[in-house]
């Protein structure tokens, strides 16, 4: 199948497309593309001219196939006593009602909708409703700060935000609505109007709750919903309750028939310049690719329960919590909580509770959980498990083996799936039961994907184990089509360095058996717990502090997170560095970008190692960060004494 998929991609995917519903089927040229920026603008079109709707395929098509009463999602709350579920039929009804809501408030095909929500079923309803009426969803992970959220609302010019009042994350109660309020204020200051904010009542008590609940405000762990602790502000005229606006809506809504290459959603990912890029995916190609990778990589069989722990706010949640599983009629789980609440056995408890067969998580979670006694895992029944997946960063063999031996009890296939927000779905991955795996290798390309390793000059490296740039030679249906509002940036970021190839930004090598090993980012990106952060973005947050003149941020290895950030800051004349200032700067980054971006180390740097032309030599900073005195070639360095002084100023815990 792989051979056919790369020799005749159009024929291969045409056959697969027959499993879907088309209002008007693909008839013209199945694939048209230009991957070479020397030959003209980069463009990728699959099934151009065909008409379909991904929400219709995910719901109506499956209901027509007799799956109406099947559970589409279980919902597992942060509190183990909080749970729910929704069938395909009920999900369609809710989606149609919310589609009608969106239409009622004036949303039309092509409008962008910002979604900032915790892991609750309404999040799925909201995104599918957008897809149903042709609105472009822009989901922002509900862990981003109000600044980051505002930046994304502004970039996409969203006039509506869908959110919830709050969420429990472990023992922490987060006021989600407050972050949205602050973000909307920032937008208003930039003369952009957010007209409507739809709020799901998830935790905040209604008046009736307030009078009925005898709730000890200081009870920990948190009691079940609602919580009297959560108090939100309300902006009349702008804010509307989800349940109010849904009342009386018809549970039917005809799907908008979308052109294959119409936009489906955008999702922001870090950019090396510091400004996030709105990665744009289109309807039909993404539908084919998300569904097909899901089917083969998890070897999904009807009746199985599948669980992807990723938040829907990341691409993994888009493709492998929502669209991929639903288009296969699979039963999934939406988990609101965190792996350590109430204790480090939570993942495995959920696997037992729902008899999960296919499980998908991140290496950072595995590393964090393997520190605990194995009994946290083994006390739960995991005999239903068949495939265990990982994604987000390279997995170290030690974690891989623990996942295989302890979690999977040596009975499960491990699939280490390499892909990106930009690729839409898995691009390098084993197929369970079919691919012989090696711990730490993502193995081989998925159907339609042609990976190549290039050297600095753009020549293909054929020599085994020699590291180079990981690039792809031809498009697959799920590849991104553009950066929202900035096609030039799309071309420069991914296609300029090596004309004719899509450049991942990752390094990789092939071993003598042809297995691909992804070695990590080779641009100015840091992968913290599977989340890509741009060093430039962190640097600009740091220099916003009035005492900071210049900042340089590099990656530093971290036992659990994989990588973390190490920041060098040069203070303004007359300022002195202190531990206190260090913590203040960490908090600055946290509030500017989000909690997950908080740096682990901040070090004083009276001056930075620079080339004579003034470029910061990050290669040297990376060495200093880990205390490695073998700094390599320093002939281009303007002032050698800088190095010694920086070594002497390293924080004690680094
Ligand atoms: C899906 C997702 C993409 C970056 C990617 C790479 C890293 C993801 C990986 C992996 C090695 C794997 N990455 N999976 N590295 N092995 N199996 O994570 O998307 O958030 O856009 O991150 O993550 O560096 O370039 P995204």
Explain what you see:
The chain is of the alpha/beta class and 654 residues long. Helix 5 packs across helix 6 and helix 11 packs across helix 12. A hairpin with a 5-residue loop joins strand 24 and strand 25. The strands form nine sheets. The protein has an eight-stranded mixed β-sheet, with helices on both faces. InterPro entries: ACAS_N, AMP-bd_C, AMP-bd_C_sf, AMP-binding_CS, AMP-dep_synth/lig_dom, ANL_N_sf. GO terms for molecular function: acetate-CoA ligase activity; ATP binding. Its EC number is 6.2.1.1.
Notable features of this structure?
single chain, 654 residues, alpha/beta, 30 strands, 31% helix, globular, binds ligand 6R9
The value of Rg in angstroms is 25 Å
User: What small molecules does this complex bind?
Assistant: ligand 6R9
Specify the number of helices.
21
User: Which consecutive residue ranges, at least 5 long each, have pLDDT under 50?
Assistant: none
Topology:
Layout: H1 2-7, H2 9-17, E1 31-34, E2 43-46, E3 51-52, H3 54-58, H4 60-67, E4 71-76, E5 83-87, H5 88-104, E6 112-116, H6 121-133, E7 136-139, H7 146-156, E8 160-164, E9 167-169, E10 172-174, H8 176-189, E11 196-200, H9 207-212, E12 239-241, H10 242-246, E13 258-259, E14 263-269, E15 277-282, H11 283-297, E16 305-308, H12 315-327, E17 332-335, H13 346-354, E18 356-361, H14 363-369, H15 375-378, E19 387-390, H16 397-407, E20 413-416, E21 451-454, E22 468-472, E23 482-483, H17 487-494, E24 502-510, E25 516-521, E26 525-528, E27 531-534, H18 535-543, E28 548-558, E29 562-571, H19 579-592, E30 601-604, H20 618-626, H21 641-648
Parallel strand pairs: 4-17, 6-7, 6-8, 7-14, 8-11, 11-12, 16-18, 18-19, 19-20, 29-30
Antiparallel strand pairs: 1-2, 3-13, 4-5, 9-10, 14-15, 15-23, 21-22, 22-24, 24-25, 26-27, 28-29
Helix pairs in contact: 5-6, 7-8, 11-12
The structure holds ligand 6R9.
Ligand 6R9 binds next to helix 12, strand 24 and strand 25.
């Amino acid at each position: 199948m792989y051979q056919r998929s790369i020799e005749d991609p159009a024929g291969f995917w045409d056959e697969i497309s027959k499993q879907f519903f088309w209002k008007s089927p693909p008839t013209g040229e199945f694939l048209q593309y230009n991957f070479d920026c020397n030959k003209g603008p980069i463009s990728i079109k699959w099934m151009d001219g065909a008409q379909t709707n991904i929400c219709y395929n995910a719901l109506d098509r499956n209901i027509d196939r007799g799956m109406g009463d099947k559970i589409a999602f279980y919902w597992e709350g942060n509190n183990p006593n909080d749970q729910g579920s929704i069938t395909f039929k009920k999900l369609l009804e809710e989606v149609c009602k919310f589609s009608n809501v969106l239409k009622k408030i004036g949303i039309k095909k092509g409008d962008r909708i910002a979604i900032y929500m915790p892991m609750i079923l309404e999040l799925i309803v909201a995104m599918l409703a957008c897809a149903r009426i042709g609105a472009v969803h822009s989901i922002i992970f509900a862990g981003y700060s109000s600044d980051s959220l505002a930046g994304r609302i502004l970039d996409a010019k969203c006039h509506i935000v869908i959110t919830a009042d709050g969420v429990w994350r472990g023992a922490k109660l987060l006021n989600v609505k407050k972050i949205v309020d602050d973000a909307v204020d920032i937008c208003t200051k930039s003369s952009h109007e957010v007209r409507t904010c739809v709020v799901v009542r998830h935790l905040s008590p209604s008046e009736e709750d307030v009078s009925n609940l005898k709730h000890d405000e200081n009870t920990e762990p948190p009691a079940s919903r609602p919580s009297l602790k959560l108090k939100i502000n309300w902006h009349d005229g702008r804010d509307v309750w989800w349940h109010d606006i849904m009342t009386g809506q018809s549970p039917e809504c005809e799907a908008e028939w979308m052109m294959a290459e119409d936009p489906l959603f955008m999702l922001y990912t870090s950019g090396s310049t510091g400004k996030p890029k709105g990665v744009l995916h289109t309807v039909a190609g993404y539908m084919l690719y998300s569904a097909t990778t899901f089917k083969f990589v998890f070897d999904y069989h009807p009746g199985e329960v599948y669980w992807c722990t990723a938040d829907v706010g990341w691409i993994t949640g888009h493709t492998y919590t929502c669209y991929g599983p639903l288009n296969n009629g699979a039963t999934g789980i939406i988990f609101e909580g965190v792996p350590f609440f109430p204790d480090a056995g939570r993942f495995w408890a959920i696997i037992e509770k729902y008899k999960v067969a296919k499980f998908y998580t991140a290496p950072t979670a595995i590393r964090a959980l393997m520190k605990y006694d194995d009994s946290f895992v083994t006390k739960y029944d995991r005999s239903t498990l068949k495939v265990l997946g990982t994604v987000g960063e390279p997995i170290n063999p030690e974690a891989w083996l623990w996942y295989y031996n302890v979690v999977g009890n040596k009975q499960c296939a491990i699939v280490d799936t390499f892909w990106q927000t930009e690729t839409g779905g898995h691009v390098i991955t084993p197929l369970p039961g079919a691919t012989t795996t090696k711990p730490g290798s993502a193995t081989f390309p998925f159907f339609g994907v042609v990976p190549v390793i290039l050297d600095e000059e753009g020549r293909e490296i054929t020599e085994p184990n020699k590291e180079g740039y990981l690039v792809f030679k031809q498009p697959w249906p799920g590849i991104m089509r553009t950066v929202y509002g900035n096609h030039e940036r799309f071309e420069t970021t991914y296609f300029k360095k090596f004309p004719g190839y899509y450049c991942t930004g990752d390094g990789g090598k092939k071993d003598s058996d042809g297995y691909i090993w992804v070695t990590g980012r080779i641009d100015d990106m840091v992968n913290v717990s599977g989340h890509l952060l741009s060093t430039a973005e962190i640097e600009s947050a740091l220099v916003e502090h009035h005492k900071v003149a210049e900042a340089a941020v590099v990656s530093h290895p971290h036992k659990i997170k994989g990588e973390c950030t190490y920041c060098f800051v040069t203070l303004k004349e007359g300022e002195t560095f202190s531990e206190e200032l260090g913590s203040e700067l960490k908090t600055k980054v946290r509030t500017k970008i989000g909690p997950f971006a908080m740096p682990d180390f901040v070090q004083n740097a009276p001056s930075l190692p620079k080339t004579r032309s003034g470029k910061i030599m990050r290669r040297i900073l990376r060495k200093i960060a880990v205390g490695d005195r073998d700094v390599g070639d320093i002939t281009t360095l303007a002032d050698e004494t800088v190095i010694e002084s920086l070594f002497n100023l390293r924080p004690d815990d680094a």
